[in-house]
Specification:
seven-stranded mixed sheet; 2-enoyl-CoA Hydratase, Chain A, domain 1; alpha/beta; Lyase 2-enoyl-coa Hydratase, Chain  A, domain 2; globular; four-stranded mixed sheet; 2 domains; 11 helices; 11 strands; binds coenzyme A; 17% strand
């Protein structure tokens, strides 16, 4: 277990769990979380033993209750633009080469929801609550909320959440397609680990290319997307894991992928 000031990172076999660790502030995102999050992702990216990353919040009540409002005092347009410009925690998650699962255990608000949106899969507990409440502070989402939320759940629903600041429950988030699965709170960790373990057994290079192709779909037109897909598909045929996958199928055994 590596310890930072505001996060923890724990390796559980091929799965790493990054926990935002400020439960007394409902895991609100301060500058320390952003900086440590980027540093931890750099380490995890380079660690070949890690195949899947889970991001969660400490304690039973909250995933992340948004930006640390206490830090808003004294910020300027320049400092705020720097926080979300280019190499942010959220963008580093978005471009992380391995699958990232948000394990959402309670409040998932503002920047917390934006962080979850930067992940590939969102799994939540029945007590999870979601909102983009920035409008109640006289501001707007600045970490991808207007862009990633709209792409994921559509303009009408995104607009309603962003304009109203209303909180929705887990069932509604599931219906909107904001989360992939909802589980009772006491099953959330086990079910998420089960899902992560299944993904961690797949071929790492193919996983990375799948991510890149799917993410490209909402950033390009169909022709560009189809061209990118076939290029990435072709790269799979250069890997040892493709040979292992095909051979294992023909030999009627489970493949052992190496990420090569
Ligand atoms: N920034 C800084 N501190 C926060 C925070 C945030 N986003 N969200 C919660 N906290 C702090 C509270 O100030 C409180 O600290 P204190 O004990 O030192 O007073 C602690 O976390 C517990 O929160 P509290 O408000 O007492 O819990 P609650 O169960 O009554 O309410 C919320 C929970 C999530 C509804 C409420 O905390 C809230 O509205 N938070 C702000 C959410 C938000 O607007 N986020 C987007 C920011 S852009």
């Amino acid at each position: 277990m590596s310890n930072y000031e505001s996060i923890t990172v724990e390796n559980r076999g091929s799965i790493a769990v990054l926990t935002i660790n400020r439960p007394d502030k409902l895991n609100a995102l301060n500058r320390s979380v952003h900086a440590e999050g980027v540093a931890a992702l750099d380490d995890l990216r380079a660690d070949d033993s890690v195949r899947v990353l889970i991001i969660t919040g400490a304690g039973p009540k909250s995933f992340i209750a948004g930006a640390d409002i206490g830090e808003f005092e004294g910020q300027t347009p320049v400092t705020q633009r720097d926080l979300f410009h280019e190499r942010t925690f959220f963008n580093t998650i978005d471009t992380f080469p391995k699958p990232v699962i948000a394990m959402i255990n309670g409040f998932c608000l503002g920047g917390g929801n934006e962080l979850a949106l930067a992940c590939d899969i969102r799994i939540c507990s029945e007590n999870a609550r979601f909102s983009q409440p920035e409008i109640n502070l006289g501001i707007m989402p600045g970490g991808g909320g207007t862009q990633r939320l709209t792409r994921l759940i559509g303009e009408g629903r995104a607009m309603e959440l962003i304009l109203s600041g209303d909180m929705i429950d887990a069932e509604t988030a599931h219906r909107f397609g904001l989360v992939n699965h909802v589980f009772p709170a006491d099953e959330l960790e086990a079910k998420t680990m089960e899902f992560a373990t299944k993904i961690a057994e797949k071929a790492p290079i193919a996983l990375q290319l799948c991510k890149e192709a799917v993410k490209f779909a909402s950033r390009s037109n169909l022709d560009e997307g189809l061209r990118r897909e076939v290029d990435l598909f072709a790269i799979c045929f250069s890997t040892e894991d493709k040979q292992e996958g095909v051979t294992a199928f023909l030999e009627k055994r489970k493949p052992a992928f190496k990420g090569k």
